[in-house]
Write a structure and sequence with these properties.
Layout lengths: L2 E3 L7 E7 L4 E7 L4 E3 L10 E9 L2 E10 L2
Antiparallel strand pairs: 1-4, 2-3, 2-5, 5-6
């Protein structure tokens, strides 16, 4: 459950999930402003290691590693 803080004057926010090879496999738009979390359904992904980025107004704000086990 990636957490985010989209406070302030923003137009668009999203989380993008990538494989370690750099292939984007999922994009989730964030409509809630302020602090919150995004639920990523595990059924949509295989077990493995992923990178997810928080993008606000087309700028990368943060990148994190996610390990999914099943």
């Amino acid at each position: 459950f990636p957490s985010h803080d989209t406070a302030g004057n923003i137009n668009q926010a999203s989380i993008h999930i990538y494989t370690l090879n750099g292939e984007e496999i999922k994009s989730i738009n964030i409509f809630q402003k302020g602090k919150g979390t995004v639920e990523i359904p595990g059924a949509d992904l295989k077990a493995g290691i992923y990178i997810y980025n928080l993008i606000i107004d087309q700028s990368e704000i943060a990148a994190y590693k996610m390990i999914l086990t099943k």
